[in-house]
Design a protein that fits this description.
The chain contains 7 helices and 14 strands. It is an alpha+beta fold. An 8-stranded mixed β-sheet has the order 8-9-10-11-12-7-13-14, with helices on both faces. A 4-stranded antiparallel β-sheet has the order 1-4-6-5. It has a two-stranded antiparallel sheet with strand order 2-3. The longest helix is centred in the C-terminal third of the chain and has 15 residues, at 179-193.
Length: 232
């Protein structure tokens, strides 16, 4: 059994719940990670941001629940079926996790539409790749094109037994196509084709609107009390 060294971050304001403080347990950056190690860590509730692997370790709070979809059991609801139908002509292409100026431009436009435009101007190509890429993980940048135009990018990690949805960004002009929903549906179908068991969706936070949507994908499992169990 291999012991993995962890560090605790200092407390800081929670990014998701206004009245909370948060901190994380972070894998020592000098520890040599690979997709096989990460496959075991994600089963224990860890996620990656760039090369950094972490999980919430907050005093008195367990609001962040790691989630995954058992793809063999997933059944699309009416809204998801409509989304799939709207995207019947959407072209999908798997690309390596490398810098592409078209992807970067789309990322900046997405961030400007949802966050402070002044801050978006300061995002550099290095910042972008440090957030989404990884030097040790098997990662795809999946392109979704509509009518010949780049509409969305899904950043997807390929693990031993699963796909992990890292991040999705899209052109706000294609919002009517629900590209975020379609990206998840595509990952579920792709996992089935590859005979993988799960799609990991990251953290579900019941009281945070931008993180609570994940329970729309059913059946959904959450890591609660160190056991994977259904979230209805």
């Amino acid at each position: 059994m291999i012991s993995i060294p962890l560090w605790l971050t200092a407390e800081h304001a929670c990014s998701y719940l206004d009245d909370r403080q948060s901190r994380s347990a972070v894998v020592d950056p000098d520890f040599m990670l690979n997709p096989q190690f990460y496959s075991r860590l994600i089963e224990q509730g860890f996620r990656r941001s760039g090369d950094q692997v972490y999980k919430p370790y907050c005093d008195g709070c367990q609001a962040c629940v790691p989630t995954r979809i058992p793809v063999a059991e997933f059944l699309a609801d009416r809204r998801q079926k409509r989304c799939a139908k709207r995207n019947e002509q959407t072209r999908v292409s798997i690309k390596p996790a490398e810098f592409d100026p078209r992807h970067f431009d789309l990322y900046r436009r997405y961030q400007a539409a949802r966050h402070d435009k002044g801050q978006t101007a300061d995002i550099s190509p290095k910042d972008y790749l440090q957030f989404l890429g990884s030097s040790w993980c098997d990662t795809w940048f999946v392109e979704f094109s509509i009518s010949g135009e780049l509409a969305a990018i899904a950043v997807v990690d390929v693990l031993d037994h699963a796909l992990s949805a890292v991040y999705t960004f899209f052109d706000p002009e294609f919002d009517d196509y629900s590209p975020g929903v379609f990206a998840v549906l595509w990952q579920i179908e792709q996992a089935r084709k590859l005979n993988l068991d799960y799609v990991y969706l990251g953290f579900w936070i019941k009281d945070c609107r931008k993180m609570s949507y994940k329970n729309q994908y059913q059946p959904l499992q959450g890591l609660i009390g160190q056991q994977w169990q259904p979230i209805s």
